[in-house]
């Protein structure tokens, strides 16, 4: 993970764990079905461990790594999850020591983070630790939320204002939905023929939770003024009720799955 990403997300670690969308259980049952063995998984850029918690239900051991100490401090523990603070780039010795030897990992996952990575270096390490045959590599992210036509219209104007403030790598998420993300791995035949598997997150959120999630975006961490009082008022009007009124929020989730 890029060092700058750690700085951006450390300052919002508490909000991150409370308001970031939760990945659907179907995602993890799908990933589990793709690996013949379930001894070891490595969740990279684990943040607060949201994905690692779900993966730990299917695999005997999970190594969950991140470069943000503040994010890891908010991670829930499980007996079979080992959290580790790492530098942005692991040396080969550190990879062996923290994750495991060559060919020892059944599943490597990256949730909402791979676009930050030094891809050439990281992909080389993934290929080294994945079990052969049978090891699976999966990356996923979600994109723009949908609530109602009125709320979505306000969001569209807000997002147009915010997009130029994202780092260039964020275009892989919000614009291209990982379709053009470099991914030098063989498609997994059981994951489907499309290069990106499309799923959906569906949650119930209050307006405050909906807006607070935007404040955890990297583009807003140092530029909170982008979510101006004027935009907040527009969202309040479009919400169609008090801020504590909960509405259904849907987010498209896209998944890439490969193997060596």
Task: For this entry, give a set of tags.
8-stranded mixed beta sheet, 20% strand, alpha/beta, 260 residues, Rossmann fold, 12 helices
Description:
β1, α4 and β2 form a beta-alpha-beta unit. 37% of the residues lie in helices and 20% in strands. The model has no long low-confidence stretch (mean pLDDT 90). With 260 residues, it is α/β, with parallel strands linked by helices. Strands 1, 2, 3, 4, 5, 6, 7 and 8 form an eight-stranded mixed sheet that branches. It starts with a helix and ends with a strand. It has twelve helices and eight strands. α2 crosses α10. The chain has a single domain, classed as 3-Layer(aba) Sandwich (Rossmann fold). The longest helix has 14 residues.
How are the SSEs ordered, and which strands pair?
Elements: H1 3-10, H2 13-19, H3 25-34, E1 40-44, H4 50-55, E2 61-66, H5 69-73, E3 81-85, H6 92-98, E4 107-111, H7 119-129, E5 136-142, H8 149-162, H9 171-174, E6 186-187, E7 197-205, H10 207-215, H11 218-221, H12 229-239, E8 247-259
Parallel strand pairs: 1-2, 1-4, 2-3, 4-5
Antiparallel strand pairs: 5-8, 6-8, 7-8
Produce a short descriptive summary:
The protein is an alpha/beta fold and 260 residues long. 37% of the residues lie in helices and 20% in strands. It is elongated and about 55 Å long.
